[in-house]
Amino acid sequence: MQLWSFTAWRASLNTLAGGWSGEGSRLQAWRKVCLIVTFVLLTTILFRPHLMLPNRVYDWYFVVDITQSMNVPDYQVAGKSVSRLQIAKQSIRKTLSALPCGSRVALGMFTERNVVNVVEPVEVCAHFAALDQTVASMDWRMAWAADSFIAHGLYNALEQAPELGKQIRVMFFTDGQQAPPANPKYMPSYAGKPGDVQGYLVGMGKPVASKIPKLDEKNAVSGYWEQEEVQRFGNFGMAETLSVLAMEQGQHDRNAGHGPGTDLLNNAHLSALDEQNLQRLANTTGLNYVRLEQSAQSSSWATGLGMTAWRWADTDLRPWLAVPAIVCWLLYLLLTFSGSRWVKWLARRWSGIRLRSH
Predict the structure, then answer these.
(1) Quick one: pLDDT band at residue 266, thresholds 50, 70, 90?
(2) What's the CA gap between 263 and 235, in Å, rounded?
(3) How far is 351 from 237, CA to CA, in rounded Å?
């Protein structure tokens, strides 16, 4: 194989160095063909040609937890503290750039028990600016309630996914903190089948507990949540249904606290990544649990082979036309300068190397 390749290259150089003896007209004809083909290809590229072709695309429903614990700045970027919410938004924006044209993206925000779908699935390239701006605008002040029941929100997002598209995957960004801490008696059960909706449950933050900041209307820190405040708001939750005997003994729901109890509220004013809770939810739903340490990680997760959705999609043909245009232009230059000294010198060098090798 090496001998054939070397012989072919030497023959080509010798032919060029000889100036195509007796075949000048053929050389000129090939030069014209290369020039015309290059011109046609470049002109076509200017019109941004597109064609519907089968493509590997990705359909995603990105959901962001916008509750106050996501304001904890326990990420470090270039030596600066950055909040969990900001890192989640950066991750989604980088993922939008990594998705190929033809992919579709929906956006949602979570707080209390529900996920609000703010953008229905749209094609990522045609609507990139709108998607990017929407993600950048997501803010904790958009929350309609202070509570954070992660299980309810995750199940709600998975219920919405099939309605958004048959191939929609879910990527849910949250620190997993229940606020107020959930009473195990009232945890909801997942009505779907594990694995019906594919995707990732993305854990945000560090496992070390940090104070939850209070932010003012300008996003400046005005203080931190204290234990007494959390206990005052956290002692009330979903009521337990009591027996008739218990009610006759004066244990009426209306007059009793229904939260998880004071013991579980002792550190509720602090926030840390609750991996145990998220892993349990991932096992229940069939999602993949991953921990986000760098914002760029989500791009590789979103474009993994297991998340592919093959579909006829509008394909940009410019990269496909640029390669043959470059090849034709290089061939034109080679044919134009085939009689130059450097080509002859190169041919002699190749011939000398071949003779010395024997």
Answers:
(1) low
(2) 11
(3) 88
Q: Which residue has the tokens 């009330």?
A: 236
pLDDT of the residue at 15: 52
Contact 271, 148 (CB under 8 A): no
Residue 305 DSSP symbol: G
Where do we find the tokens 């919410």? 85
Listed in order, strand segments (DSSP E) in 204-330 are 210-211, 213-215, 221-224, 270-271, 288-291, 309-316
CA dist., res. 147 & res. 226, Å (int): 16
* Number of other residues whose CB lies within 10 A of the CB of residue 65: 27
- Model pTM? 0.70
pLDDT number for residue 353: 56
Q: Is the peptide bond before 180 cis (omega within 30 degrees of 0)?
A: yes
How many whole angstroms separate alpha carbon 110 and alpha carbon 154? 9
Going by their DSSP bridges, the two strands 114-123 and 104-111 should be labelled as antiparallel
User: What pLDDT score was predicted for residue 255?
Assistant: 38
